[in-house]
């Protein structure tokens, strides 16, 4: 099979922008799709800001930043994914939206062998795969936030994913400098199945008044050497995303530890989504 040189990324929020940036920095041509011109502009700004940060930190030169940016093109038309060899969808964690996007991508690449990967955190891959005409070439590829930093990718074959697609995806992860693990097609895969109950337990501790966010976070940072405590991490992930992930996991297992606590729901309803909009368990500069 031809090596992957032409990548598509659908959705340019926190995860999609990170995936596009990492791929461009590894020399791939990346076409990024977003729904509206405003979302395209915001996605471009996010990638540029992250590359600029890399320059400031001495991780890449200005020339390398400009080369990476030149490898990324933007569109709001999914039919422009027709020439892509591999497409990662990273739109909102919502089953209907993801299903619609995969169906549209399936149509766009219908004449090719392209693999469609979903960056879902919790939706069963098989459900998304059977919505397309190429179920054997649909797979889960779950990145971690911040994508340029976290080395892991979970590769999640559905029952009907072909072995060739699994190998192609593992090779692609390696091309991006990531370490792949194979994870089961059950809601939460490996990492979120372990992480989410821990994060939600921290929310319940705040909700019950048992401990303050900063004490909880410092406890896990200083006591267990976690790079950030659970509430700071929830703010990084986005409380709306965390709620959506917990809901999918609860729907699958009916495990009370996966149920989003009322405080999390209320914070999301109030628009306190975490770092991305300046307020979650903590307040951030704009
Ligand atoms: N892009 C690129 N590089 C970044 C970055 C970003 N957005 N954020 C941080 N970095 C780099 C910095 O450049 C720095 O690199 P250097 O030390 O070589 O110069 C390094 O990461 C450390 O950054 P900082 O000094 O600014 O800040 P911290 O030391 O506080 O690290 C952190 C920030 C990397 C976010 C770290 O706290 C961390 O790893 N936190 C845990 C994150 C985590 O657990 N992520 C998984 C979330 S779960 C998930 O994504 C799954 C989903 O389905 C819910």
Automatic annotation (TrEMBL):
Keyword GTP-binding assigned: no
3-hydroxyacyl-CoA dehydrogenase C-terminal domain boundaries: 188-284
Example GO biological process: fatty acid beta-oxidation
InterPro entries assigned to the protein according to its UniProt record, in alphabetical order: 3-OHacyl-CoA_DH, 3-OHacyl-CoA_DH_NAD-bd, 3HC_DH_C, 6-PGluconate_DH-like_C_sf, 6PGD_dom2, NAD(P)-bd_dom_sf
Example of a GO MF term: NAD+ binding
Pfam families listed in its UniProt record: 3HCDH, 3HCDH_N
Protein family according to the UniProt entry: Belongs to the 3-hydroxyacyl-CoA dehydrogenase family.
UniProt organism field: Streptomyces flaveus
Protein name (record): 3-hydroxybutyryl-CoA dehydrogenase
Keywords, comma-separated and alphabetical: Oxidoreductase
Sequence ranges assigned to domain 3-hydroxyacyl-CoA dehydrogenase NAD binding in this UniProt record: 7-183
The keyword Metal-binding appears for this protein: no
Lineage, broadest ranks: Bacteria, Bacillati, Actinomycetota, Actinomycetes, Kitasatosporales
Site, Important for catalytic activity: residue positions: 142
Record pathway: Lipid metabolism; butanoate metabolism
